[in-house]
Amino acid sequence: MSNAQAKTSGVSRNPVLAPLPTRSVLVVDDSRMQRKLLKASLARWGYEVTEADSGQSALEICAEFEPDMVISDWMMPGMDGLQFCKAFRALERENYGYFILLTSKSEKDEVAKGLDNGADDFLTKPVNSAELRARLTAGDRILEMQRELTEKNRLIKSTLDELQSLYDSIDSDLVEAKKLQQSLIRERHRDFGSAQVSLALHSSGHVGGDLVGFYRISKTRIGLYAIDVSGHGISSALMTARLAGYLSSTVPEHNVAIEEGPDGCLRPLPPAKVISYLNYLVLEEMETEHYFTLLLADVDLETGRVRMAQAGQPHPLLQRADGTIQQEGPGGLPVGLIHGAEYEEFEARLNPGDRLLIFSDGIVECPSPEGRLLEEKGLEGMMRNLHETTGTAALEALIWKLSEYAGEQDFPDDVSAILLEYQGFSDTQNLPEHQKPSNI
Predict the structure, then answer these.
(1) Beta pairing class for 98-103 and 69-73
(2) CB 176 within 8 A of CB 380
(3) Helix 32-44 crosses helix 129-183 at what angle (to 10 degrees)?
């Protein structure tokens, strides 16, 4: 049989092509003969075909089910193909529908008009079978890509939902972790009689690597420590918790900075020796990539003498009673970097009315909105302004001023500080409570 004999009213057969995947096609044409010819070809190629004789009846059919493809004549009485196409695009559908317009119009302006109203492709009458098949194949590719995209989007949404659930769970755990980390600071303020100690800890995230604290050694001696573990997050927080155990304020026998003397009384070990021992522990006994900076202080409440050792922590700030400020220290390597690192000790002598601020680099390295760091000079200016403010109120005001300097943005690093305010020692502090003079 020749190709000419196989053609019927412009619709030709092409049986050598592979069958296409089953899809539903809605054929819309006011000509019964044209619908019959198109349906015969489409059914032979494996499509499920539904017919409509007008745009309005086609819309009613589309309300019942969603055809994958639509082949619609342009020129029809009542609602023409262009109007139907526009109405078809306005329907709410779960999947995309491929729309082909049949027309005798070949002018570019008319084609552009059809595209503007939502048509995907055009075929001119009389319809050539091979061209129709090619246009349907192109539509199949687009619909398959759309199906794959929809499936991928579904998988992405499902994955995002799972991730959100995991994030919510982790976020809840981190909130609790932050509470636990904050609980490592059992007291934010303690009055030791001749001196008062105040603490501040502000994590840049849920949990952080900063920790500050104090521990009592005897009636006249206390220890102070400020730690800043490298990094942020859970692993850094776990490291600070472990270090807090080594400098315990509740179990002196577990505190590596305290030893029992020959008389059975507790006494402080030299701060430099303690830091060297912690350096050994981190490098020899802890499997961690973290290191930390540390300032450890031994405070004699009777004399005001403060003996300190510094391991990468910023220089402490000494503010005299008259408001003048000094900042000095030997610096030193962070703990956990180099085997056998040596640390130097230095001293400060506090007189009544003097105070000592020990702080993390999150304060002096706090940036302004323009990226300018606060640095030591900026901190000194803040402390001068807060000269008359004492205790926890002074630290809270310092954090507020720091937030103001940062332009209300979140701090990029953890912020922590210890404020030691010295009033001077009185012999009555060693007397039993019932022998101390009344304040009234």
Answers:
(1) parallel
(2) no
(3) 60
User: How confident is the model over 21-25, as a mean pLDDT?
Assistant: 81
Q: Which position has the higher pLDDT, 406 or 239?
A: 406
Q: What tens digit of pLDDT does each residue of 249-308 get?
A: 778 788 999 998 888 889 999 999 999 999 999 999 888 888 999 999 999 999 999 999
Candidates 12, 9, 42; CA nearest to 27 is 42
Q: Which domains does the chain have, with CATH numbers?
A: 3-152 (3.40.50.2300), 185-430 (3.60.40.10)
Contact yes or no for 419/359 (Cβ under 8 A) = no
Six token digits for residue 283: 């490098």
Distance separating alpha carbons of residues 157 and 164, to the nearest angstrom: 10
Q: How far is CA 205 from CA 6, 171, 186, 193, 409, in A?
A: 76, 11, 20, 35, 13
- First CA to last CA across the chain, in angstroms? 125
Cα–Cα distance for residue pair 138/434, rounded to 1 Å: 99
Q: Rounded distance, CA 419 to CA 357, Å?
A: 5
Predicted TM-score (pTM) of this structure: 0.62
Rounded CA separation 42/47 (Å): 5
H-run or E-run covering 299: strand 292-300
Q: Is the pLDDT of residue 339 over 70?
A: yes
Which residues in 53-141 belong to E strands, given as ranges?
69-73, 98-103, 121-124
